[in-house]
Amino acid sequence: GMTCRANINANGARDGSDNLNPGCYNNFNPGNGTTRLNPGVFFLNNASLTINGNTKITGTGVTLIFMGTSPGSITANGNSEIDLSAPTDTNCGVYAGVDSCNYKKMVMLQASNATAGNSNEIKGNNGTELDGAVYFPKGSMKFTGSSSPATKCAMIVVYRVDFSGNTDIQNNTTGCTANTTVNGRKVRLIG
Q1: CB burial class (10 A; 0-12, 13-18, 19+) of residue 88?
Q2: How far is CA 152 from CA 33, 107, 112, in A?
């Protein structure tokens, strides 16, 4: 029962300011400058997110879900920034019957029907900050150039990860309370 907006660009789905509302999008182009995402789930239906130059996307209590028959990917180039924090227990909303609390601590995820090894990149002088889990089970995540994403309580679960150039990840785990049980069973990552 979810309806996706046809083409959302810098002027679409705004709440009267520089903010974008959660929802389902068939095309997602936030435009140049700073765009703030209102709390909630952003479903990108067969849509990719590419930002360049000095573009900045910010949001608290936000989850980006790359979905559809051909799930898209994410690319951040140049001096662009993606500063997002995932929903928490106190920051849950509902969109089209989907409880945002189902995506607690998930800041970005890509559907498992994505093409194996699909490319997702954070490159250049990118100043990305992510607070939450990134889950791309079939996607490769590449950090290149001098990108130095700063993360808090981040978990990056991807099919393949590549670091090149002067890139690094700075992860602040102070105060992290990741839930390690689901339905009474312990959850562990095995490497």
Answers
A1: middle
A2: 24, 11, 25
